[in-house]
Amino acid sequence: MNKYHFTISIHFKRDYDVENLGEILRLSPSSITPYEKSVGNKKSAKFVYKTNVLDDIYTDEMFEKFVKQVAPRLTALPNILNQYDGTCVFRIVFDQLKEKPCLSLSNEVLGILYNLNASYDVDFMI
Predict the structure, then answer these.
(1) What is the mean pLDDT of residues 68-88?
(2) What is the pLDDT of residue 79?
(3) If DSSP codes are grouped into helix, strand and coil, which group holds residue 89?
(4) In 3D, which of 120, 125, 124, 123 has the Cα closest to residue 63?
(5) CA–CA gap between residue 35 and residue 82 (Å, rounded)
(6) pLDDT score for 41
(7) What count of other Cβ atoms lies within 10 Å of the Cβ of residue 16?
(8) Judging by DSSP bridges, how do beta strands 31-33 and 45-50 pair with one another?
(9) Dihedral through CA 99, CA 3, CA 94, CA 101, nearest 10?
(10) What confidence score (pLDDT) does residue 120 get?
(11) Which percentage of the chain shows pLDDT scores above 70?
(12) How far is CA 126 from CA 3, 6, 13, 93, 123, in A?
């Protein structure tokens, strides 16, 4: 079985109080980086939500279930992203691959990501 987890990463190029974003989205962040504590020339505020590690071969089905569960909580996100020059990425991170993963997205999931102005990414940390 493959071991993987999902994340939602939200970055703001302008100063935004990411510490309050968890309350707005009703998600407990796995990590936050306030704008004033970011490092380098490209300062940003960052909010990351991460699931526990999953162990399943049906990655696409699990991702669809995850997106459908969190999407209703994110209805305020597109306005916040527009106002504070933000981006949102839904990500699958493979920690361990034992079988070829199934990575198809349904039209419904693509529509949800589009409505949230979010992108989709796959990372292999092997």
Answers:
(1) 90
(2) 92
(3) strand
(4) 120
(5) 17
(6) 66
(7) 23
(8) antiparallel
(9) 30
(10) 92
(11) 94
(12) 11, 16, 30, 10, 9
